[in-house]
Specification:
There is one protein chain. The protein is α+β, with helices and mostly antiparallel strands. It has two domains: about 80 residues, Dodecin subunit-like (2-Layer Sandwich), CATH 3.30.1660; about 70 residues, no CATH class. About 45% of the residues lie in helices and about 15% in strands. A three-stranded antiparallel beta sheet has the order 1-3-2. β2 and β3 form a beta hairpin. α4 packs antiparallel against α5 and α5 packs parallel to α8.
Length: about 220
């Protein structure tokens, strides 16, 4: 084989390689599913804040981000994400690059102290588009409810000392969580709000917890 023939074959091979590379690039750019598969699944950082009444006996857990102020901040973050990008992006568990800070604060020179939490995270896709406040499950077990709902109930009950003891914040419906839910539902405040003593974090119970924590 002559040197000229070898050069010609090399040029043809290089041309074919370049054409294949361009074709693959064009297919990826035009296919959003392939683009997402390469890691383009998160939105820019989004900030939110929440607060809860300052209670000396719950201050430590609130500052650790285990109380009502953090629950309020996450709920506000989820609401803003849903409004901006759609509810499929609002899953806090799927968010990336999370940062948070909780500390006592005072609204000006006059007024009581409260706990304020500021958070930021990148919303990431993690589920189908659904209503921001989905209907309660048809089942009557605590574990039938979304993990985000259970987490909020646990954080608010801890932060507001709604059941008189600290419970683990893990998003799972264990015996402690169910006992605390029943205790809150059966309290004077829960009875005044017409709560059913069933140990589940239904929407009516969550709304009552939010109101209780803001007193």
């Amino acid at each position: 084989m002559t040197p000229k023939s070898i050069l010609w074959r090399g040029a043809v091979a290089a041309l074919m390689t370049a054409m294949l590379t361009l074709s693959a690039s064009a297919q990826t750019d035009g296919d959003p599913l392939q683009a997402r598969a390469q890691g383009e699944e998160c939105k820019p950082l989004l900030n939110a804040a929440g607060k809860a009444k300052f209670r000396p006996f719950t201050q430590a857990r609130e500052v650790r981000g285990e109380g009502a102020a953090m629950a309020d901040a996450i709920a506000n973050w989820q609401r803003d994400v849903s409004a901006k990008y759609g509810s499929q992006w609002m899953l806090w568990d799927k968010a990336q690059d999370k940062n948070s800070n909780c500390s006592p604060a005072r609204p000006g020179t006059i007024g009581s102290w409260f706990i304020r939490c500021t958070i930021e995270a990148r919303p990431c896709g993690g589920g189908p588009a659904t209503a921001e406040e989905p209907s309660d499950p048809t089942g009557r077990e605590c574990g039938d409810f979304p993990r985000a709902r259970i987490l909020e109930a646990q954080q608010r009950m801890n932060g507001c000392d709604a059941c008189g003891r600290r419970i683990t914040v893990d998003g799972a419906c264990g015996p402690q969580t169910e006992r605390c839910l029943r205790g809150f539902q059966g309290s004077r405040f829960g009875r005044d709000k017409g709560l059913e003593v069933n140990g589940i974090p239904d929407r009516k119970t969550i709304n009552a917890l939010r109101e209780y924590c803001e007193r």
